[in-house]
Amino acid sequence: MTEARPVRSRRDLARVVFRRRWGIVGLLAVAVGATGAGSYLSRWTYRSRAVLVACPSGGAAGREELAGFAAVQAGLLKSEETVARALMRLDGRGGGPVEAFLREQSGRVARCRRRVRIASGGRDAGCTLTVCVTWPEDRAAARRAGRDARELAAERAQAFAACLLAAGGAVSDAPPASAPSASRATGGGSAQADVRQALGELERCRQALAAAARRPAPPAPGPPDGEAEAAAEARRAAIDAEMAVKRARLKALEATVERAARADGDAPEPDTAVPAELLRASPSLRATVEAIARQRIELKDLRQRYTDAYGPVGRLKARLADALTDFRRELTAAVEQERERLEGELAGLGAARAAAGGAATRPARPARPARPGGPTEIPEHRRLQRALDRAVAALQRSRTRPAPSAASPPGAPMLRVVDAPSRPRADRPHRPVLWLNLAIAAGAGLLLALAGAFAADRHDHAVRGADDVERSAGVEVLASVPVLRRGAFRAERGGR
Amino acid sequence: MSPAPGAAVMLSPRAGEVFGELWSSVFGGGPGSPGSVLVCSAGVGEGATTVACGLALAGAAAGSRVALADLNVRRPGVGGALRLSETDGDGVRAVLAGRAEPSEAARRLGPHGLDVLPVGPADGAQRAPDAERAGALLDDLRRRYERVVVDAAPVNPHPDAGLLAGLVDGVVLVARCGRTPREALGRARRRLDAAGARVLGVVLNGRTYPLPAALYDRL
To answer: What domain range includes position A341?
Structure first.
């Protein structure tokens, strides 16, 4: 086996390059041409960029702790799915506009960029995540919609920016330097306040309804029979509304149990969101939820830092599975308690409704519309009905957006929007920089072609010069006959 | 008996310069210089016939009495290169078969008087020349000429060159630049050594110089 030809001097290098110059030029031309054509034909994109800060929920942390936390976050934000999940946290535990938007646009989010850096000190201590979502022009969708593809892509990006802004709470559209941190950090606390206000209002409504049901009907100044009948109808309507609320509550609790039952211990993020009142009612459930959150954070940390150390991860997974089993058992018990309580209340309300219906067992008369300025119960019931509607709506909102401090696990990281998402414009697409792409392609193509030329030269076994002859045959070169383009011999004029 | 007259063929100026240097390298070594030289290549189509013809023409132009014998009965090429008809008269095949004398097969090539022995008309199956008769032919040529140049079949595919290599004073190997594999050249050298030949050196045929002269001088 003959050894590869060594390249010893600058002359050898230059000789290799010149010998294969047409191959190098060809490869370079192909690289530059393909890049130029690709850049020219590539679709324009529209970008929206937002800067978030993720920090441990415990508040200010040391630099080392932040570094570990940042490592966990970097591991969590490796995929598009986890970026979407992180964005959802802005909105609570799912079901919000960001989640709905991302679910709707899931096939069209082209790229998310994550940059994690540690910013310590002040309220913004944490690791900064720069999320950049890119939308390409969707010409097929634009053609179906009869719209311009650029406008459609820009609209999608604008919708994402607006969605993220809305989810971030009190985030302003101002530049980051002028946006105060305190106002940005209030997004998470509003959900908790909503829940408390809704529950308080619901309690007040319930008491008022109970009092109204117990109160005898006042003497009617007008036609007494019609007023009493209207009051009874209003009471029945109010009680029906409250019963509907209770039934919805029961259905929500059953859905919570089903969700927890579906959660698998091996899944990356089992859903353990529990309504706040259940946590308050059951200290053991709250402790279990906290333990799950702590173990989940620990597990993620271990996954990121020691991906090859499966032993601790396996033990932690087993512990997490046990904790999830405990959590399901505790949750089922708490829900059963709550169900019994609610059913008792429903029975009481049913009795009250029957009593209210008994008051209206007088001879039937055609119902008349209530007059304005009539008895005080009708406006009161209407006001109570409106309050009930508001409370039901708040409860529905809070069911899908629990307060971080109350419903979220204590160890879960919090995300705050620091830099508002940019709003792309239809007339400012992100287009490829042609000259930059061409320069990169030329450099990369040249390096590739040179590497290919030297590799081919090393595997070229043909005799090229005196060195090759001396190494392979062991004799010297007597003469080198060049390529004689006009031939070596010519006939003498006059010869035969 | 004087050789029959043939065509008048000369080297081009550039070829005359190159092959003149080669003549000096091979035969200009004083008293120990070889009287007969076998020119062969490692494989087919590497330019051994061209080198043999150029070497003989350069010797004739230098004033030596030179004979060029084409013993490549596998693929005769000397007649075609020097514009001699292989079928016009006897050749080496007739001499090796005992039908003609070497002087009858030789043809004089002008203007410097190079005597060429082409292979001659085909007489059936191609086979290696008989070593005894080839030796007699070469001895006869050595007696009547100062220098004898012999063109032979390639070394690696045929045994002819191995048989003839022991009958001459030296062997010149021809390799085509950029085509002859280094392994083939080494194998040819080993086969010639095994046949007891004295390999004088290698002629690099079709040599190219990829670097421009200005750049070559700067590096």
So the answer is: 190-362+372-412
